[in-house]
């Protein structure tokens, strides 16, 4: 884990985390927005400005890749590097949750 | 120009985009709906029924082809594209319950928007230093003394303008970071 360079992307913002998670399968922009809303149970909304910026940045860093383009809609999917980043983020969140749970009785 | 359109010229600083959005919304509430934007700071409005439209501004520079996809993404999310003024992209949406009225849904992406403007400002700022004749010391009565002095003052003023914009925009980014 220390040898790869994925740590420089962490921690992901909440929006980026959710956007990347939806891209385990190829999706276009609007589908990403709807899915983030759905899987976060409405706690995270991603506006088109935020999403466009995220797509641009993630594509530039090669964490996602364009797989299809039709009717002026681009579809993206995670690259192996992107999956790695998401996995490391998940591990961090798991540790954070465990740490939180260990003190929950004192709160 | 037809009677049912008006043209307004109004200046907004780059860190005042929220004020600009609020102004456009208030115009729509009075029945004047933004129909196009253009340089320098020209807003064209068309008369209609008063409606509660929210306006949102993004800052993006890209080739035409990418612009199509960009607009499509916003259209899918319910935003109407109005136009572009020096890389500022204008969108609107009618206010309805349970609809997201923001195009930027987190602080990070709002900051990223302002950060996209800064490189252009820095570029002009540096170019002005390079081309300005400020460093030239001249003695009166040099033949072009008046012209050179005038150019020096003029360049200095523009340079100060850019310095001011860079400082204010950087402060705006800092302010957002604290939130």
Topology:
The complex is a heterodimer of chains A (107) and B (179).
Chain A: H1 14-22, E1 27-28, H2 29-39, H3 48-60, E2 64-70, E3 73-78, H4 80-102
Helix pairs in contact in A: 1-2
Chain B: E1 5-9, H1 17-29, E2 32-38, E3 42-47, E4 53-59, H2 64-76, E5 80-85, E6 88-94, H3 107-131, H4 145-178
Antiparallel strand pairs in B: 1-3, 2-3, 4-6, 5-6
Helix pairs in contact in B: 3-4
What does this protein structure show overall?
The complex is a heterodimer of chains A (107) and B (179). With 107 residues, chain A is α+β, with helices and mostly antiparallel strands. Chain A has a single domain (6-101), classed as Arc Repressor Mutant, subunit A. Helices cover 52% and strands 14% of the residues of chain A. Chain A is built from four helices and three strands. Chain A has helices spanning 14-22, 29-39, 48-60, 80-102, and strands at residues 27-28, 64-70, 73-78. A three-stranded antiparallel β-sheet of chain A has the order 1-3-2. In chain A, a hairpin with a 2-residue loop joins strand 2 and strand 3. Chain A is globular and about 55 Å long. Chain B has two domains: 5-94, no CATH class; 107-178. In chain B, strand 5 (80-85) and strand 6 form a beta hairpin. Chain B contains four helices and six strands, in the order E-H-E-E-E-H-E-E-H-H. A three-stranded antiparallel β-sheet of chain B has the order 1-3-2. Chain B starts with a strand and ends with a helix. The mean pLDDT of chain B is 90. Chain B is an alpha+beta fold and 179 residues long. At the A-B interface, helix 2 and helix 3 of A face helix 2 and helix 3 of B.
Report the end-to-end length of chain A measured between terminal Cα atoms: 32 Å
Named CATH architecture of chain A: Orthogonal Bundle
Q: Main β-sheet of chain A: number of strands, strand sense, barrel status? A: 3 strands, antiparallel
Beta-strand share of residues of chain B: 15-25%
Largest interface by Cβ-Cβ < 8 Å: A-B, 23 and 23 residues
Percent helix of chain B: 40-55%
């Amino acid at each position: 884990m220390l040898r790869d360079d994925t740590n420089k992307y962490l921690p992901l913002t909440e929006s980026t985390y959710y956007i990347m998670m939806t891209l385990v399968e190829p999706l276009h922009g609007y589908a990403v927005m709807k899915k983030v809303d759905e899987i976060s149970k409405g706690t995270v909304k991603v506006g088109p400005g935020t999403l466009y910026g995220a797509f641009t940045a993630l594509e530039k860093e090669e964490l996602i890749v364009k797989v299809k383009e039709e009717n002026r809609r681009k579809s993206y999917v995670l690259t192996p590097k992107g999956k790695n980043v998401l996995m490391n983020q998940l591990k961090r969140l798991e540790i954070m949750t465990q740490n939180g749970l260990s003190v929950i009785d004192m709160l | 120009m037809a009677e049912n359109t008006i043209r307004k010229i109004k200046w907004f600083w780059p860190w005042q985009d929220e004020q600009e959005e609020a102004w456009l919304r208030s115009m729509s509430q009075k029945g004047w709906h933004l129909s196009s934007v253009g340089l320098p700071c020209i807003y064209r409005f068309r008369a209609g029924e008063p409606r509660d439209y929210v306006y949102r501004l993004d800052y993006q520079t890209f080739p035409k082809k990418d612009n199509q996809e960009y607009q499509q993404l916003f259209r899918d999310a319910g935003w109407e594209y109005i136009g572009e003024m020096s890389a500022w992209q204008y969108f609107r949406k009618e206010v309805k319950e349970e609809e997201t009225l923001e195009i930027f849904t987190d602080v990070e992406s709002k900051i990223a928007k302002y950060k996209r403007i800064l490189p252009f400002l820095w570029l002009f700022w540096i170019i002005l230093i390079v081309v300005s004749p400020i460093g030239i010391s001249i003695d009166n009565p040099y033949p072009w003394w008046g012209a050179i002095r005038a150019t020096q003052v003029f360049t200095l003023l523009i340079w100060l303008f850019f310095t001011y914009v860079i400082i204010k925009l950087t402060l705006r980014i800092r302010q957002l970071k604290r939130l």
